Amino acid sequence: MKERLIIGIAGGSGSGKTTLAENIAAHFGDAISVLRHDDYYKSQKDLTLAERAVLNYDHPSAFDTDLLISHLDSLKAGNAVDCPIYDYANHDRSTDTRRVESTDVILLEGILIFENADLLSRLDMKIFVDTDPDVRIVRRILRDVKERGRTLDSVICQYLATVKPMHEAFVEPSKKNADVIIPEGGQNPVAYGMIIQKIAAHLAL
Q1: How far is CA 17 from the centre of its chain?
Q2: CA-CA distance, 104 to 96, in Å (whole number)?
Q3: Nearest Cα to 144, choosing from 132, 155, 157?
Q4: Which residues pair with 81 in a beta bridge?
């Protein structure tokens, strides 16, 4: 049986890692499976919306990484999983789930996937998307205001209070664990082409 290839794509918020992952997924369609670390935020249903809104979502403790690891192990063993779905508007896990089938290539993206040693050990290829901080904050503002229903003030306050310090404490240091560091994520056609070739070669085995 062909060994499954697990690829991790990490980088700061707004770096372009999600765009890169989505472009790869669109290229290969159902031939690869995609997991997002964001969907594994811990459930906070016992808190009010106001309380959930001020939590630190950029610290490793905000994630149920143990569940993510168990799902990765299940996918690698050939079993489908029911992945949680995170609701950004409500700052909580949705009651819905998303069925993810086991495929020969499994793609995982998230800001902190290179920070956890157990998770890191399960990744066969580790890609870090490195993007200028000014570009990342502008992208984050546009995304959160337009797509996630946030106010400009709330996005800026969150960035200064948790996103920036957590990036410096956890995300940036995790870059040393990457096999490949690429600038600009989905906007880097050369790096994108190399990743596509790597995946295509594995699928052809």
Answers
A1: 7
A2: 26
A3: 155
A4: 100
Paired tokens of 93: 């896990």
pTM above 0.85?
yes
Instruction: Output the six-digit token pair for 71.
Output: 């799902």
Domain boundaries, the chain: 5-203
**3-state secondary structure (DSSP) of residue 165:** helix
How far apart CA 99 and CA 88 sit, in angstroms, is 19
Structure tokens at 142: 């546009």
Nearest to 189 by CA among 39, 47, 27: 27
Summarised one tens digit per residue, pLDDT across range 158-183 is 899 999 999 999 999 999 999 999 98
pLDDT, tens only, 25-70: 999 999 999 999 999 999 999 999 999 988 999 999 999 999 999 9
Q: For domain 5-203, give the CATH superfamily.
A: P-loop containing nucleotide triphosphate hydrolases (3.40.50.300)
Let me know: does 3 contact 205? Beta carbons within 8 Å: no
Residue 142 CA to its chain's centroid (Å): 18
Alpha helices in the chain (DSSP H): 17-28, 49-53, 65-76, 117-120, 133-147, 152-158, 164-166, 172-174, 189-203
